[in-house]
Amino acid sequence: MPKVSPAGLRRSGDSKSSLRGYWVRVRFIIRCNTEYGESLAIVGSSSEIGKWNVASRENLVWCDDGTWQKTIDYYRDAEENLDVEYKLIIVRYAGTTQVCWEDGLNRRLQHPTVDVGCVSNVCRKEVMVFPDYPEWQDYGLKKFKEVTFSTAGGVLSFNIACAKASHTDMLSTFLTGLRPETRARYGAHPLTAEYAAEACDYGSDANRLKTHLLIISPGPKPEVVGYILMDQSEITHEHERYRKLYNTHLESPVDIFFAPVMGDKYQNRGIASSVIPVVKKHIEDIRARSIVLLGGVQQTNASAVHFYQKSGFHKYGEFTWDNLVNVDMRLEVR
Ligand SMILES: CC(C)(COP(=O)(O)OP(=O)(O)OC[C@H]1O[C@@H](n2cnc3c(N)ncnc32)[C@H](O)[C@@H]1OP(=O)(O)O)[C@@H](O)C(=O)NCCC(=O)NCCS
C-alpha cells in the first residue's frame, strides 16, 4: 500500500495538482477498551485501508491518553468519489491472528465531513471516532474558487483558500501591514510574520485542528484581503469562561473558535458578510455545532458587533479583560 508522507501532502498544495484532485488527511482518534495483547486496526474499501483485506489493514497506535490513533493521507482524482467505507477490527495474536469485526453497518467517510460515531459491537467496545479536519484548501479550490460577492460597493470577486506554504509571504504582508486601529481590535494571536509562517504550515501538529482561511484577490498580483482563524481545538480558558459565566459547556472539536480580520481598505464593504454563508455551509458539512468568537468582541467595536449580530451570532454576556469590556458571542448551527 503506498504511504504518503506529510511532506508529500504539502507538496500537493500547488495549484496544478490541486486542480486535478484532492489530498485528504483523516485522523482517527478512537477510544476502545482493548485487552492486553489486542490491537485496533481499520480495514475498508479503499487501497489505503486494505480494500477489505485484513492482511493489508492499517494498524492504529496506542497513545498515552488512552486512545488509539492513526493519520491516513490519500489522494483522489477530481472525478473520483471520495466516499470510503470502513470498519474497525480488533486483532489478537494467539498462535494465529484472530480478528473481531465491529458489527452493524459499515462506517462511511464522506469528505469533507467529521465522522463522529459511537458503536457498541460484538466486542462490547465503546468506540468514538473523530477523523481529522480534511484539507480544506483543496476543497476550497474546487468549491470556492472565484466566489463572487455582490456588496454595497458593487460586485467583487475573490478566492477563498486555506493557508498553505505558498501563501506565507502574502499572509505576512497582510498581517504586518494592518493599521494600529485594526490591530487593536484583534486579540486572537499576534499579527506578525512569525505567526504567518506558523499559520501556513499545514503539516504542523499545532494546526491539526486549525483552519486559517484566506480571502484572496484574483488577478496577476493576488493579495490577501481578509483572514479568518477557525480553531477546533480545546482552548481551556475560553471553555472555562463559558462554563463559569454562562453555564455553557463548549466542546472540541464541534464548537469552533472564530476570529476574522479584513484588510483596512476592505472593511465595511460586505466581504465578511458574504463569506459567512460559505463558513456556515462548511460547519454544517463537518457536523460541527457552533462558531464561538475567540476572546469575544470588544464592546466598543460597533461595526464588528453589528456584523456578528447580522450574521446570526447571539450575545452570551460580557467580561473584562485588560481593562476592556468584551462581549461573548456565538452562532449555533444545530
Ligand atoms: C469586523 C470585520 C471582520 C467585519 O468584516 P467586514 O467585511 O468589514 O464586514 P461587512 O462589511 O460584511 O459588515 C460590516 C457591517 O457593519 C456595519 N458598520 C460599519 N460601521 C459601523 C458602525 N460604526 N456601527 C454599526 N455598524 C457599522 C456595516 O454597515 C456593515 O453592516 P451592513 O451590511 O448591515 O451595512 C472587519 O470590519 C474587521 O476586520 N474589523 C477590524 C478587526 C476586527 O474588529 N475583527 C473582529 C475581532 S472580534
From TrEMBL:
Any GO molecular function: starch binding
Position of the signal peptide: none
SUPFAM superfamilies on file: Acyl-CoA N-acyltransferases (Nat) (SSF55729), Starch-binding domain-like (SSF49452)
CBM20 domain: residues covered: 18-138
Pfam families cross-referenced by the UniProt entry: CBM_20, FR47
Coiled coil: none
GO cellular component entries: membrane
Identification of the protein by name: CBM20 domain-containing protein
